[in-house]
Amino acid sequence: MNHWQSPFAFALIPILLAVMAYRLWYRRSKNASLQFSRLRELMVVPPGMGARLTELPSLLKVAALGAAVLALARPQSPSTQVRRSVQGIDIMICLDVSDSMRIEDMQPVNRVESAKKWISEFIKGRSSDRIGLIIFSGESYTRVPLTLDYPLLLQSVKDIKLSRTLKPGTAIGVGLANAVARLKDSTAKSRVIIFLTDGENNSGTIDPDTALQVAKGYGIKIFSVGMGRDGESQLPVYVTDAFGHTIKEYRPIHSDINVALLKRFASETGGKFYRATEGTQLRDVFTDIDRLVKTKISTDKFTRYTELFQKQLGFAMVLYVAAIILGQTVLRRGP
Protein backbone atom coordinates (compact mmCIF):
# COMPACT_ATOMS: atom_id res chain seq x y z
CA MET A 1 0.00 0.00 0.00
CA ASN A 2 1.42 3.38 -1.06
CA HIS A 3 2.24 6.10 1.42
CA TRP A 4 1.83 9.82 0.59
CA GLN A 5 4.63 11.93 2.03
CA SER A 6 3.01 15.32 1.20
CA PRO A 7 -0.77 14.75 1.18
CA PHE A 8 -1.44 18.50 1.52
CA ALA A 9 -0.77 18.72 -2.23
CA PHE A 10 -4.23 17.22 -2.80
CA ALA A 11 -5.64 20.59 -1.73
CA LEU A 12 -4.68 21.83 -5.22
CA ILE A 13 -7.26 19.54 -6.86
CA PRO A 14 -10.32 21.71 -5.99
CA ILE A 15 -8.42 24.76 -7.25
CA LEU A 16 -7.60 22.91 -10.46
CA LEU A 17 -11.26 21.93 -10.96
CA ALA A 18 -12.40 25.50 -10.33
CA VAL A 19 -9.92 26.91 -12.89
CA MET A 20 -11.01 24.30 -15.45
CA ALA A 21 -14.70 25.16 -14.94
CA TYR A 22 -13.98 28.89 -15.26
CA ARG A 23 -11.96 28.43 -18.46
CA LEU A 24 -14.74 26.32 -19.98
CA TRP A 25 -17.38 28.93 -19.12
CA TYR A 26 -15.20 31.82 -20.33
CA ARG A 27 -14.38 30.11 -23.62
CA ARG A 28 -18.02 29.40 -24.41
CA SER A 29 -19.07 32.94 -23.52
CA LYS A 30 -16.44 34.40 -25.81
CA ASN A 31 -16.91 32.09 -28.77
CA ALA A 32 -17.14 33.90 -32.12
CA SER A 33 -20.35 33.31 -34.14
CA LEU A 34 -21.59 33.58 -37.69
CA GLN A 35 -25.18 34.38 -38.60
CA PHE A 36 -27.02 32.43 -41.31
CA SER A 37 -30.48 33.02 -42.71
CA ARG A 38 -31.15 29.28 -42.84
CA LEU A 39 -29.59 26.42 -40.77
CA ARG A 40 -31.47 23.49 -42.35
CA GLU A 41 -28.73 22.69 -44.83
CA LEU A 42 -26.00 23.02 -42.15
CA MET A 43 -27.76 20.79 -39.66
CA VAL A 44 -27.41 17.76 -41.90
CA VAL A 45 -23.65 18.21 -42.23
CA PRO A 46 -21.93 15.96 -39.64
CA PRO A 47 -19.15 17.55 -37.58
CA GLY A 48 -15.62 16.57 -38.55
CA MET A 49 -13.09 14.76 -36.36
CA GLY A 50 -11.37 18.03 -35.56
CA ALA A 51 -14.61 19.48 -34.23
CA ARG A 52 -15.28 16.41 -32.12
CA LEU A 53 -11.80 16.54 -30.56
CA THR A 54 -11.56 20.29 -30.19
CA GLU A 55 -11.45 20.08 -26.38
CA LEU A 56 -8.89 17.28 -26.27
CA PRO A 57 -5.81 19.53 -25.79
CA SER A 58 -7.47 21.23 -22.84
CA LEU A 59 -8.44 17.91 -21.30
CA LEU A 60 -4.89 16.63 -21.74
CA LYS A 61 -3.54 19.71 -19.98
CA VAL A 62 -5.96 19.18 -17.11
CA ALA A 63 -4.92 15.53 -16.87
CA ALA A 64 -1.27 16.62 -16.93
CA LEU A 65 -1.87 19.03 -14.07
CA GLY A 66 -3.68 16.28 -12.13
CA ALA A 67 -0.71 13.95 -12.57
CA ALA A 68 1.58 16.78 -11.46
CA VAL A 69 -0.48 17.15 -8.27
CA LEU A 70 -0.05 13.42 -7.57
CA ALA A 71 3.69 13.85 -8.07
CA LEU A 72 3.72 16.77 -5.60
CA ALA A 73 2.02 14.51 -3.04
CA ARG A 74 5.11 12.26 -3.26
CA PRO A 75 3.77 8.71 -3.38
CA GLN A 76 6.13 6.24 -1.69
CA SER A 77 6.29 2.49 -1.40
CA PRO A 78 7.13 1.41 2.18
CA SER A 79 9.35 -1.59 2.83
CA THR A 80 9.44 -2.67 6.47
CA GLN A 81 12.20 -4.84 7.90
CA VAL A 82 12.35 -6.29 11.41
CA ARG A 83 15.69 -7.12 13.01
CA ARG A 84 15.62 -9.45 16.01
CA SER A 85 18.58 -9.49 18.35
CA VAL A 86 18.68 -12.59 20.54
CA GLN A 87 20.89 -12.80 23.62
CA GLY A 88 21.01 -16.55 24.08
CA ILE A 89 21.71 -18.34 27.35
CA ASP A 90 24.11 -21.27 27.75
CA ILE A 91 22.67 -23.94 30.05
CA MET A 92 24.35 -27.09 31.33
CA ILE A 93 22.05 -29.68 32.91
CA CYS A 94 23.94 -31.83 35.41
CA LEU A 95 22.02 -34.97 36.46
CA ASP A 96 22.85 -37.44 39.23
CA VAL A 97 22.49 -41.05 38.03
CA SER A 98 23.76 -42.81 41.15
CA ASP A 99 22.06 -45.97 42.47
CA SER A 100 19.73 -44.07 44.79
CA MET A 101 18.12 -42.38 41.76
CA ARG A 102 16.36 -45.73 41.18
CA ILE A 103 14.22 -45.22 44.29
CA GLU A 104 10.59 -45.27 43.21
CA ASP A 105 9.20 -42.32 45.14
CA MET A 106 8.64 -39.93 42.22
CA GLN A 107 6.38 -40.31 39.22
CA PRO A 108 6.33 -41.66 36.54
CA VAL A 109 8.63 -44.48 37.75
CA ASN A 110 11.57 -43.36 39.83
CA ARG A 111 13.70 -40.31 40.51
CA VAL A 112 15.78 -40.46 37.34
CA GLU A 113 12.78 -41.11 35.05
CA SER A 114 10.94 -38.19 36.62
CA ALA A 115 13.98 -35.98 36.06
CA LYS A 116 14.25 -37.14 32.43
CA LYS A 117 10.59 -36.33 31.80
CA TRP A 118 10.76 -32.75 33.05
CA ILE A 119 14.21 -32.07 31.61
CA SER A 120 12.77 -33.00 28.21
CA GLU A 121 9.80 -30.68 28.71
CA PHE A 122 12.18 -27.87 29.68
CA ILE A 123 14.29 -28.38 26.55
CA LYS A 124 11.18 -28.34 24.33
CA GLY A 125 10.24 -24.96 25.79
CA ARG A 126 13.52 -23.27 24.79
CA SER A 127 14.15 -21.82 21.34
CA SER A 128 17.50 -20.03 21.04
CA ASP A 129 19.60 -21.25 23.97
CA ARG A 130 22.50 -23.66 23.80
CA ILE A 131 21.92 -26.56 26.19
CA GLY A 132 24.27 -29.36 27.24
CA LEU A 133 23.88 -32.49 29.36
CA ILE A 134 26.21 -34.02 31.97
CA ILE A 135 25.56 -37.10 34.11
CA PHE A 136 27.49 -38.19 37.17
CA SER A 137 27.62 -40.74 39.93
CA GLY A 138 31.06 -41.64 41.34
CA GLU A 139 32.51 -39.98 38.22
CA SER A 140 31.16 -37.65 35.55
CA TYR A 141 31.03 -37.38 31.79
CA THR A 142 29.46 -35.11 29.19
CA ARG A 143 26.72 -36.78 27.18
CA VAL A 144 26.01 -33.72 25.02
CA PRO A 145 28.12 -30.52 24.87
CA LEU A 146 26.43 -27.15 24.46
CA THR A 147 24.25 -27.35 21.36
CA LEU A 148 21.21 -25.96 19.57
CA ASP A 149 20.43 -29.42 18.20
CA TYR A 150 17.43 -30.03 20.45
CA PRO A 151 16.33 -33.31 18.77
CA LEU A 152 19.79 -34.78 19.48
CA LEU A 153 19.65 -33.51 23.05
CA LEU A 154 16.17 -34.94 23.65
CA GLN A 155 17.22 -38.32 22.31
CA SER A 156 20.25 -38.32 24.61
CA VAL A 157 18.03 -37.56 27.62
CA LYS A 158 15.70 -40.37 26.62
CA ASP A 159 18.61 -42.84 26.36
CA ILE A 160 19.94 -42.18 29.89
CA LYS A 161 20.08 -45.50 31.71
CA LEU A 162 21.00 -46.35 35.28
CA SER A 163 23.82 -48.76 34.65
CA ARG A 164 27.07 -49.85 36.20
CA THR A 165 29.22 -48.18 33.55
CA LEU A 166 30.12 -45.35 35.94
CA LYS A 167 31.83 -45.74 39.29
CA PRO A 168 29.44 -46.03 42.23
CA GLY A 169 28.97 -43.11 44.58
CA THR A 170 27.88 -39.48 44.32
CA ALA A 171 30.68 -37.18 43.19
CA ILE A 172 28.91 -33.81 43.44
CA GLY A 173 32.15 -31.84 43.21
CA VAL A 174 33.28 -33.67 40.07
CA GLY A 175 29.87 -33.25 38.39
CA LEU A 176 29.77 -29.52 39.14
CA ALA A 177 33.38 -29.00 38.06
CA ASN A 178 32.65 -30.73 34.75
CA ALA A 179 29.66 -28.43 34.14
CA VAL A 180 31.75 -25.36 34.98
CA ALA A 181 34.47 -26.50 32.58
CA ARG A 182 31.90 -26.71 29.78
CA LEU A 183 30.70 -23.15 30.44
CA LYS A 184 33.89 -21.28 31.35
CA ASP A 185 34.80 -20.44 27.73
CA SER A 186 31.25 -19.56 26.75
CA THR A 187 30.72 -16.03 25.40
CA ALA A 188 26.99 -16.01 26.27
CA LYS A 189 25.89 -13.11 28.42
CA SER A 190 24.21 -15.51 30.86
CA ARG A 191 25.53 -18.96 31.86
CA VAL A 192 23.52 -21.35 33.99
CA ILE A 193 23.92 -24.79 35.57
CA ILE A 194 20.84 -26.83 36.54
CA PHE A 195 22.18 -29.29 39.10
CA LEU A 196 19.97 -32.25 40.14
CA THR A 197 20.97 -34.73 42.84
CA ASP A 198 19.39 -36.88 45.55
CA GLY A 199 22.44 -37.43 47.77
CA GLU A 200 25.50 -35.90 49.30
CA ASN A 201 29.10 -35.86 48.17
CA ASN A 202 30.80 -39.16 49.03
CA SER A 203 33.15 -39.72 46.10
CA GLY A 204 35.37 -38.01 43.57
CA THR A 205 38.65 -36.12 43.60
CA ILE A 206 37.21 -32.58 43.55
CA ASP A 207 35.68 -31.01 46.64
CA PRO A 208 32.24 -29.39 46.03
CA ASP A 209 33.39 -26.13 47.65
CA THR A 210 36.30 -25.93 45.24
CA ALA A 211 33.98 -26.41 42.26
CA LEU A 212 31.63 -23.78 43.73
CA GLN A 213 34.39 -21.20 44.00
CA VAL A 214 35.36 -21.80 40.38
CA ALA A 215 31.73 -21.37 39.29
CA LYS A 216 31.54 -18.09 41.23
CA GLY A 217 34.76 -16.90 39.62
CA TYR A 218 33.31 -17.36 36.15
CA GLY A 219 29.98 -15.74 37.07
CA ILE A 220 27.97 -18.93 36.49
CA LYS A 221 24.57 -19.22 38.19
CA ILE A 222 23.58 -22.54 39.76
CA PHE A 223 19.97 -23.67 40.10
CA SER A 224 20.24 -26.65 42.45
CA VAL A 225 17.52 -29.25 42.91
CA GLY A 226 17.35 -31.74 45.80
CA MET A 227 15.32 -34.73 44.62
CA GLY A 228 13.44 -37.37 46.63
CA ARG A 229 12.68 -37.92 50.29
CA ASP A 230 15.24 -38.25 53.05
CA GLY A 231 15.43 -41.30 55.27
CA GLU A 232 14.93 -45.02 54.82
CA SER A 233 13.74 -46.16 51.38
CA GLN A 234 13.51 -49.27 49.25
CA LEU A 235 16.00 -49.60 46.40
CA PRO A 236 14.86 -51.81 43.51
CA VAL A 237 17.45 -54.32 42.31
CA TYR A 238 17.25 -56.98 39.64
CA VAL A 239 18.61 -60.47 40.27
CA THR A 240 18.59 -63.67 38.24
CA ASP A 241 17.06 -66.78 39.81
CA ALA A 242 18.16 -70.38 39.34
CA PHE A 243 16.06 -70.67 36.19
CA GLY A 244 17.60 -67.62 34.49
CA HIS A 245 14.62 -65.35 35.13
CA THR A 246 15.18 -61.72 36.11
CA ILE A 247 13.44 -60.88 39.35
CA LYS A 248 12.90 -57.41 40.80
CA GLU A 249 13.58 -57.15 44.49
CA TYR A 250 13.77 -54.29 46.98
CA ARG A 251 16.55 -53.67 49.45
CA PRO A 252 16.62 -51.09 52.22
CA ILE A 253 18.71 -47.97 51.61
CA HIS A 254 19.22 -44.75 53.53
CA SER A 255 18.96 -41.60 51.37
CA ASP A 256 20.05 -38.15 52.55
CA ILE A 257 20.36 -34.91 50.62
CA ASN A 258 22.96 -32.31 51.56
CA VAL A 259 20.48 -29.44 51.53
CA ALA A 260 22.93 -26.99 53.10
CA LEU A 261 25.46 -27.58 50.29
CA LEU A 262 22.88 -27.21 47.53
CA LYS A 263 21.57 -24.02 49.10
CA ARG A 264 25.09 -22.58 49.10
CA PHE A 265 25.47 -23.52 45.44
CA ALA A 266 22.45 -21.35 44.68
CA SER A 267 22.85 -18.47 47.12
CA GLU A 268 26.54 -17.81 46.39
CA THR A 269 26.09 -17.77 42.61
CA GLY A 270 22.81 -15.85 42.32
CA GLY A 271 20.75 -18.92 41.46
CA LYS A 272 17.98 -20.65 43.39
CA PHE A 273 17.54 -23.84 45.44
CA TYR A 274 14.56 -26.16 45.03
CA ARG A 275 13.33 -29.17 46.95
CA ALA A 276 11.32 -31.74 45.01
CA THR A 277 9.99 -34.84 46.76
CA GLU A 278 7.49 -35.84 44.06
CA GLY A 279 7.05 -35.56 40.30
CA THR A 280 4.59 -32.66 40.33
CA GLN A 281 7.02 -30.60 42.42
CA LEU A 282 9.80 -31.32 39.95
CA ARG A 283 7.50 -30.10 37.16
CA ASP A 284 6.96 -26.86 39.07
CA VAL A 285 10.73 -26.54 39.56
CA PHE A 286 11.43 -26.58 35.84
CA THR A 287 8.50 -24.25 35.17
CA ASP A 288 9.99 -21.74 37.60
CA ILE A 289 13.51 -22.10 36.17
CA ASP A 290 12.11 -21.60 32.67
CA ARG A 291 10.48 -18.38 33.88
CA LEU A 292 13.61 -17.07 35.61
CA VAL A 293 16.11 -18.05 32.92
CA LYS A 294 14.64 -16.04 30.05
CA THR A 295 16.36 -15.26 26.78
CA LYS A 296 16.48 -11.52 26.03
CA ILE A 297 15.06 -10.69 22.61
CA SER A 298 15.08 -7.11 21.29
CA THR A 299 13.26 -6.13 18.12
CA ASP A 300 14.15 -3.17 15.90
CA LYS A 301 11.77 -2.13 13.13
CA PHE A 302 13.02 -0.25 10.07
CA THR A 303 10.87 1.17 7.27
CA ARG A 304 12.45 2.22 3.98
CA TYR A 305 10.44 4.33 1.52
CA THR A 306 10.95 4.18 -2.24
CA GLU A 307 9.95 7.36 -4.11
CA LEU A 308 7.35 6.84 -6.86
CA PHE A 309 6.65 10.46 -7.91
CA GLN A 310 8.91 10.13 -10.96
CA LYS A 311 6.28 8.07 -12.78
CA GLN A 312 3.50 10.61 -12.17
CA LEU A 313 5.77 13.51 -13.10
CA GLY A 314 6.89 11.82 -16.31
CA PHE A 315 3.27 11.02 -17.19
CA ALA A 316 2.30 14.67 -16.59
CA MET A 317 5.06 15.90 -18.92
CA VAL A 318 4.01 13.49 -21.68
CA LEU A 319 0.38 14.60 -21.43
CA TYR A 320 1.26 18.31 -21.44
CA VAL A 321 3.61 18.01 -24.42
CA ALA A 322 0.95 16.01 -26.30
CA ALA A 323 -1.62 18.72 -25.54
CA ILE A 324 0.68 21.45 -26.89
CA ILE A 325 1.52 19.53 -30.06
CA LEU A 326 -2.12 18.68 -30.82
CA GLY A 327 -3.26 22.21 -30.00
CA GLN A 328 -0.72 23.69 -32.41
CA THR A 329 -1.25 21.19 -35.26
CA VAL A 330 -4.23 19.03 -36.11
CA LEU A 331 -6.51 20.44 -33.39
CA ARG A 332 -5.52 24.05 -33.72
CA ARG A 333 -8.54 26.35 -33.12
CA GLY A 334 -7.24 29.60 -34.56
CA PRO A 335 -6.00 30.46 -38.06
Furnish the topology, listing elements before pairings.
Elements: E1 3-4, H1 12-29, H2 40-43, H3 49-52, H4 56-72, E2 75-87, E3 89-96, H5 111-124, E4 130-136, E5 140-147, H6 150-158, H7 172-183, E6 190-197, H8 208-217, E7 221-227, E8 231-240, E9 246-255, H9 259-267, E10 272-276, H10 279-292, E11 296-307, H11 309-328
Parallel strand pairs: 3-4, 3-6, 6-7, 7-10
Antiparallel strand pairs: 1-2, 2-11, 4-5, 8-9
Helix pairs in contact: 1-4, 4-11, 5-6, 5-10, 7-8
Q: Your description of this structure?
A:
This protein is an alpha/beta fold and 335 residues long. The chain folds into two domains: 48-73 and 311-335; 85-231 and 258-298, Rossmann fold (3-Layer(aba) Sandwich). It is built from eleven helices and eleven strands. The strands form three sheets. Strands 5-4-3-6-7-10 form a six-stranded mixed sheet, sandwiched between helices. Strands 1-2-11 form a three-stranded antiparallel sheet. Strands 8-9 form a two-stranded antiparallel sheet. Helix 8 links the parallel strand 6 and strand 7. Helix 4 packs antiparallel against helix 11 (309-328). The longest helix has 20 residues, at 309-328. The protein starts with a strand and ends in a 7-residue tail after the last helix. The model has no long low-confidence stretch (mean pLDDT 82).
Helix content: 25-40%
CATH class of the largest domain: Alpha Beta
Largest beta-sheet details: 6 strands, mixed
End-to-end separation in angstroms reads 49 Å
Rough shape? Answer: rod-shaped
Would you identify the regions where 5 or more consecutive residues have pLDDT less than 50?
Answer: none
The CATH architecture of the largest domain comes to 3-Layer(aba) Sandwich
**Average residue pLDDT:** 82
Strand order within the widest sheet?
Answer: 5-4-3-6-7-10
- The rounded Rg comes to 42 Å
What percentage of the residues does DSSP assign to strands (E)? 25-35%
**Count of discrete structural domains:** 2
Number of separate helices: 11
Looking at CATH, the homologous superfamily of the largest domain is von Willebrand factor, type A domain
Structural class: alpha/beta
| Extended strand count | 11
